[in-house]
Each structure stands twice: as structure tokens, then as C-alpha cells.
Amino acid sequence: MTSRQKKLSILAFRFGLLGLVGHLLGLTLAALGFEDFNGHGFSLFNFSLSELGQYGLSDLAVVFNGGLFFGSLSLMLFCLFSLQNADNTWLYSVFAVLVLSLFSLAVTGLFPVNVYHLHTLGIEYFFYFSFVAIALYIGYLLHPPFGVKTFSCTGSLLLSLLTLVCMGAFIVLAHFDISMVANGRWFYHDLIMIEPRPEYWWPVMLEWLSLGLFLLWVGSLVLSQRAFRRR
Taking Cα atoms as reference points, which of 62, 53, 52, 57 lies closest to residue 38? Predict the structure, then answer.
């Protein structure tokens, strides 16, 4: 590894770690301080991402939205530094599309659900771009020559496939009326203050599961920079 590559790898790892901590810290603090109009605390089982960042409902919405915005910007810098150490065209595409995905997530935090159309647009494109980035990464892992590659030391194929399936399911179910959610309404545009609120609302759980797996997947890419630096 050259001196330049090592410096890029160090910067990528630090910005990536900072971005992940920002996301997790914002989510944790906002969740702990959340209380809806009925006095209920936050639950991943029946409150959506949008509600946690909704001004007027979530007391620490600014913390959650700030974590989304600044955490995503930091991860975008991780991608830009990592891209310069990419070892083939597959990875160039992965990090380029991932930048667009994280930009969309930053837009989601910058424009909370109170700015409805921009917020939902940010979420929509976050899922689109994330799905494409993960699919390209799977292509990178499977593309000859097979074996351990620069950015696959800690990023497993199984995690990538699982994240891809969950995000793909959310995209499909969010845009087709299959009469399974809220009397057939498209739940992508109906994840806010549904009444009566079910105890276990599976569209919301799928949204959080997709986001959680996405952050784990990005985390595996961040850790791979650390392994790359040791080569």
C-alpha cells in the first residue's frame, strides 16, 4: 500500500465511523426521549422513522434529524475517500451510487415529515439507490476472480443478500396495493399516525429492519478499510 492509499484509508475509516456513530447516537437519544400524544414511548414495532423525526410529536426530533443529516454527510465522505482506493469498476459504481443513497438519507433528515413531499421523496430514493448499490456490491463479490477482495474482508455475501431482500421487499410493498396494510392503502405514504395503531405494525418493522441492515452493511465496508490499511 502506498502512503497516499494509507492516508485515504485512514480518512475513510474515521469519517465512516463518525457517520455510523452519528446515526446511532441520534436514533438512541431521540427514541429515549420520545412520547406521542397518547403518552406512549417509542417502539420499533409500531412507530416509523418519519415519526421519530416529526417536529411537534417527537421532543428530540432535531437530534434524530441532525443524526440523519450529519451522519449521512460523514458517510458520503467515507465513500468519496474509499472510491479513490477502489480496485475495479464494480467498486467505483458501488461507492458512486452509495453517495446518492446517503445524500437521499441526508435529505430525509434535512426535510422532516413536516415537509411531507420532500421527506417522502428522500426516503423513496434512499431505498432505490441503496438497493442498486448493494446489488452492485454483490456483483463485485461474485465477479471473477473469485476469492477475498479488497473491500470484502468483513462484508459478507449473506449480509448483502439479506439487506437486498429486505429493501427490495419494502420497495415492492410500498408501491403496490395488495390489500394487506391499512385496508389496502399504500403504506409508503401512510406510515404516520395511523389510528388505531397496531401493536405490531409490520411495514414499520420492515422499514427499521431495512435501515438497520443497511447500516450494518455500510459498517462492514467501513471496517474493510481498516483491514485494507493493514495490507
Answer: 57
Q: Is the dihedral of CA 44, 120, 60, 37 positive or negative?
A: negative
Three-class SS state of 161: helix
pTM as predicted: 0.89
C-alpha cell recorded at residue 11: 480518512
**How far, in Å, are 2, 30, 100, 158, 225 from residue 85 at the CA level?**
10, 35, 19, 24, 9
Instruction: Please give the DSSP secondary-structure letter assigned to residue 197.
Output: P
Spell out the long-range contacts of 55-61 with Cβ–Cβ below 8 A and sequence spacing 24 or more: 55/112, 55/114, 56/114, 57/193, 58/30, 58/33, 58/34, 59/33, 59/34, 59/35, 60/29, 60/30, 60/32, 60/33, 60/34, 61/30, 61/112
Place of cell 434512499: 126
pLDDT digits (tens, 9 = 90+) for 49-107: 988 999 988 889 999 999 999 999 999 999 999 988 877 888 899 999 999 999 999 99
Joined together, the cell numbers standing for residue 212 give 438497520
